[in-house]
Design brief:
This protein is an alpha/beta fold and 264 residues long. Helices cover 39% and strands 20% of the residues. The protein folds into two domains: 121 residues, Rossmann fold (3-Layer(aba) Sandwich); 125 residues, Rossmann fold, CATH 3.40.50.10090. The protein is built from eleven helices and ten strands. Helix 1 runs parallel beside helix 11. It is elongated.
């Protein structure tokens, strides 16, 4: 039984190859998933500093993964067995990251219990006293500095292992805008600050009003704040998992059915 209005269009901006589950959830519920990757995820070279640092036998006290992409790229670069024998404790920034680690057979020692972001991870009691401990943060190039800065303030030694980079994807803007202007996009989904900035840049000018008035589902309150500061009128913060994002989309669709509001 369909849960979304007929023809309900959802703009899915996840990187290519990472949108399949969300697409199926939307289409199985009667909606239309409009796949428009805004960024591509590229692993760094195998001989880059990040993979080489991970491949060293000098184990840190904590190995911290800040995204599911960090998990996937680290294992793609170093192989399925690279964590065998590692004595470090494992931290994941959220549920999606923890699930990606579980799929690799890695048990997570620490993840936030409520909000899934750097602030929540830093609030965990186990990291209240970290003076002298060594942390290795696995991430993409150019990520947030908050986690490392806060840990260093507490006396920890922190290094990065950057295993991927985000690059702009090729977007068919004439086709996207034509669909949007025709009322074919009812909700946008955005999963990173870089993706939101890219979408805002692409929609600059007269068509920006389309972006600002269309309901938007984002990951986390920090990104929601960024979207609201941009001027987006209807923003819902969800967790990073596909089911969480879909649940937020579903709530918007059901609300439109209930109130008989015009779509688009």
């Amino acid at each position: 039984m369909a849960d979304l209005p007929p023809g309900f269009g959802v703009l899915v901006t996840r990187p290519a190859g990472q949108a399949g589950t969300l697409q199926r959830l939307i289409e199985d519920s009667g909606g239309t998933a409009i796949l428009t990757p805004l960024l591509d995820i590229e692993p760094v070279a195998k001989d880059a500093e990040g993979p080489r640092r991970l491949g060293r036998k000098e184990n840190p006290n904590w190995l911290v993964f800040v995204s599911a992409n960090a998990v996937r790229c680290a294992f793609d670069l170093l192989g399925v067995q690279w964590l065998e024998g590692c004595q470090a404790k494992i931290a994941a920034i959220g549920l999606a990251t923890a699930r990606a680690l579980a799929e690799k057979g890695v048990e997570v020692d620490l993840k936030p219990k409520q909000q899934f972001n750097s602030e929540a991870l830093l609030a965990e009691a186990e990291w209240a006293e970290v003076s002298g401990l060594k942390f290795l943060i696995v991430r993409g190039a150019g990520g947030r500095e908050l986690l490392a800065e806060a840990l260093r303030t507490r006396g920890a030694v922190v290094e990065y292992a950057e295993v991927y980079r985000r690059v702009p994807a090729v977007v068919d803007m004439p086709g996207l805008l034509a669909r949007w202007r025709a009322g074919g996009i009812d909700v946008t989904t955005v999963t990173s600050g870089e993706a939101l900035a890219t979408l805002a840049r692409l929609m600059a000018g007269a068509d920006q009003a389309l972006l600002l008035r269309t309901p938007m589902v984002v990951i986390g309150e920090r990104l929601a704040k960024q979207a609201r500061e941009l001027g987006c009128a209807h923003v819902i913060a969800a967790e990073a998992g596909d089911l969480d994002i879909f649940d937020a989309v579903l709530r918007i669709g059901r609300a439109l059915i209930k109130t008989h509001q015009p779509r688009g």
